[in-house]
Write a structure and sequence with these properties.
- By secondary structure, the protein is α/β, with parallel strands linked by helices.
- The chain folds into two domains: 173 residues, FAD/NAD(P)-binding domain (3-Layer(bba) Sandwich); 149 residues, D-Amino Acid Oxidase, Chain A, domain 2, CATH 3.30.9.10.
- It is built from ten helices and 19 strands.
- A hairpin with a 2-residue loop joins strand 10 and strand 11.
- It starts with 6 loop residues before the first strand and ends in a 10-residue tail after the last helix.
- The model has no long low-confidence stretch (mean pLDDT 97).
- Bound molecules: flavin-adenine dinucleotide.
- Flavin-adenine dinucleotide binds next to helix 1, strand 13, strand 17 and helix 9.
Length: 382
């Protein structure tokens, strides 16, 4: 292992890969990703792979305006097939409050150039005749939203980063960060120390632990989220949007010949537990059959649990010199939307490190917002 680096990236998920790629493209070397397990073995490979413009916060929409085009040209730019399908995201509202939010969100998104549409129940019936809609007030649809394979995206970033000179060390846990006079000077690992002026914390659900290594309290907590996949199921069309029943936080989409579905258990406390709770599946199926009655005929093939890294306002913490520690950069707490934001966020971190300018107003994502009670947060969290 090398003993000095310009930049040490802690975490080899999709954020680590993207950051290494954009840094390498800017000629920064050596850059090294330290991953305690294997690349993409954290939340990245367990994600549902959803990619959407439809957010309630302007900064999130702007991040997606930069990220979606990268997914669109990923196969060519990274020489990696990511199975990006732009079948759209269909959000459904069943309360007046959510419907009012949807209207404000669509106005924001359209102002920024996103082709989201408000839909009446009749419009929704035309788009998705297999849905039960008697309790639905309306919906929103953006045809440019979709999903891709998160593992392939993470590996595409990492492979290109490596080709451009970045180094990757798997099975290498960062156990400490050394500091002098309020600035970062290196990282400790069981394989030895690496001296560096820049440490990038992209450790996902474990990022608060890395924050503690420099005495910074990052309010990022792990929460289990589960996904279930059916056997091949042809009672629904082969191409359907990602459908989000917003109130119960239930979603489903195609996964090859089957259907992938997930739901947030709002009562579940924070933990690092990723076991599948098959009893919870009964609650998911109840919501599924309510919304798409044909799903009553589906049988389940597999399920898995992974971790969301959640902040108090469901927006990430992105910045340089975080907590006043010089050379400590963070992109953490994506609260369930980090995969889709990884292209822009990697670019942002690379620019912050090389020029100090993110090229985007990130004031909503400052760590200080929590202490100051600022920031409106993100309402479209699933
Ligand atoms: C069920 C589920 C569904 C999801 N669906 C979506 C979705 O549809 N769309 C979307 O955009 N996002 C989704 N997400 C969220 C998405 O997976 C994450 O936001 C994203 O993968 C975060 O990437 P990351 O690189 O920051 O973190 P991770 O992929 O978790 O990577 C962090 C890495 O850091 C490593 N690490 C931790 N501590 C250390 C240390 N001390 N030293 C070295 N390495 C360390 C870990 O091993 C891990 O590999 C979903 C998540 C789950 C669980």
């Amino acid at each position: 292992m090398i003993r000095t680096a310009e930049v040490v990236i802690v975490g080899g998920g999709v954020m680590g890969g993207s950051t290494a790629y954009y840094l390498a493209r800017r000629g920064v070397r050596p850059v090294i990703i330290l991953e305690r397990d294997q690349l993409a073995s954290g939340s990245t490979s367990l994600s549902a792979g959803g990619i959407r413009y439809q957010f309630s916060s302007e900064t999130n929409v702007r991040i997606m305006l930069e990220s979606v085009p990268v997914f669109e040209r990923f196969a060519e730019e990274f020489d990696t097939e990511i199975d990006f399908r732009q079948d759209g995201y269909l959000f459904l509202a069943t309360t007046a409050e959510t419907w009012a939010d949807f209207q404000a969100n669509v106005a924001l998104q359209r102002r920024l150039g996103v082709p989201t549409r408000l839909l009446s129940p009749d419009d929704i019936r035309e788009l998705a005749p297999y849905l039960y809609l008697d309790d639905v007030i309306g919906g929103t649809f953006c045809p440019k939203d979709g999903y891709a394979d998160p593992y392939s995206v993470a590996m595409g970033f990492a492979r290109k980063a490596r080709e451009l000179g970045a180094l990757i060390s798997e099975k290498t846990e960062v156990t400490g960060v050394s500091m002098e006079g309020g600035r970062v000077t290196g990282v400790e690992t069981p394989k030895g120390r690496i001296a560096t002026p820049v440490v990038v914390n992209v450790a996902g659900a474990w990022s608060a632990q890395v924050g503690r290594m420099v005495g910074v309290d990052l309010p990022v907590k792990p929460y289990r989220r589960q996904i279930f996949v059916t056997h091949p199921f042809d009672a629904l069309p082969q191409r359907i949007p990602m459908i989000i029943d917003f109130e119960p936080s239930f979603y489903f989409r195609r996964e090859g010949p089957g259907i992938l579905m997930g739901m947030t258990d709002k009562d579940e406390p924070s933990s690092f537990n990723t076991n599948v709770d098959w009893d919870f599946l009964a609650q998911v199926v109840e919501k599924a059959v309510h919304r798409a009655p044909l799903l009553e005929r589906a049988g389940f093939m597999r399920g898995w649990g992974g971790l969301y890294a959640v902040t108090p306002d469901d927006n990430p913490i992105i910045g340089k010199d975080v907590g006043g520690v010089e050379g400590f950069y963070c992109a953490v707490g994506f609260s369930g939307h980090g995969f889709m934001q990884s292209p822009a966020v990697g670019r942002i971190l690379a620019d912050l490190i090389t020029t100090g300018d993110a090229g985007l107003d990130l004031s909503e994502f400052r760590l200080e917002r929590f202490a100051r009670g600022e920031g409106v947060g993100e309402k479209r969290v699933i």
